[in-house]
Amino acid sequence: MEALKSKILTDGVVLGSQVLKVDSFLNHRIDPVLMSGIGDTFAELFADAGITKVLTIESSGIAPAVFAALRLEVDLIFARKRKSLTLRDDIYTEKAYSFTKQEENEITVSKSFLNAEDRVLIIDDFLANGQAALALARIVRQAGGEVAGIGIVIEKSFQNGRQVLLDAGFRVESLARVASLENNTIRFVE
Ligand code: 5GP
């Protein structure tokens, strides 16, 4: 998506060779016009996938996911992150290792919001090693539903998340694919 790539080039901040900071339009301040375009693009890509729900994880997935859900005219559910939790029987729970925090989170979704008839589009802001998306997919599976696809705003293609998700059999659509952050320079996959 060209508008997203331009924004990454003008506003993205490279932190080392592994992390891209996009606080000025996605992770802290949000550009609603860009988010609306992102929602349109996801909705077009998955128009024929029979999506019944969009699922993301708090907090940075919510902005792009809500626009995708709006365009697809389905509900959005965001998984909540919690440090630790006593077992409850009204929620689905999965563990997800956080790339940015370098710790394991427990993520939860209420059982009343996902069911076996759902075809779910998973959306996240970044794809690094795929652990967040896999944990969301396991929650869909717990509900008996199907993952129709995974939509990523910014994929870091030099990490192995895409391959992990493809190997698990998922369709992955990334709107910007970053090939490298070496030498403080953002390069996209051709
Ligand atoms: P994964 O689960 O694929 O390893 O990592 C994806 C998650 O980690 C995303 O939900 C995102 O919040 C965070 N993340 C991973 N890499 C980056 C990055 O370079 N920049 C930012 N802002 N977040 C990242």
UniProtKB/TrEMBL annotation:
Enzyme Commission number(s) of this protein: 2.4.2.22
InterPro entries according to UniProt: PRTase-like, PRTase_dom, Pur/Pyrimidine_PRTase, Xanthine_PRibTrfase
Superkingdom as given in the UniProt entry: Bacteria
Gene Ontology molecular function terms on file: xanthine phosphoribosyltransferase activity
Subcellular location, record wording: Cytoplasm
Cleavable signal peptide: none
Annotated 5-phospho-alpha-D-ribose 1-diphosphate binding sites: 128-132
Catalyzed reaction equations: XMP + diphosphate = xanthine + 5-phospho-alpha-D-ribose 1-diphosphate
Keyword Transport on entry: no
Cellular component, GO annotation: cytoplasm
Keywords: Cytoplasm, Glycosyltransferase, Purine salvage, Transferase
Example GO BP: XMP salvage
Domain Phosphoribosyltransferase: 38-157
Short name of one Pfam family: Pribosyltran
Binding site for xanthine: 20, 27, 156
Pathway per the UniProt entry: Purine metabolism; XMP biosynthesis via salvage pathway; XMP from xanthine: step 1/1
Keyword rRNA-binding: no
HAMAP family given in the database record: XPRTase
Similarity annotation: Belongs to the purine/pyrimidine phosphoribosyltransferase family. Xpt subfamily.
Assembly notes: Homodimer.
Function: Converts the preformed base xanthine, a product of nucleic acid breakdown, to xanthosine 5'-monophosphate (XMP), so it can be reused for RNA or DNA synthesis.
Protein name, entry field: Xanthine phosphoribosyltransferase
Organism the protein comes from: Cohnella thailandensis
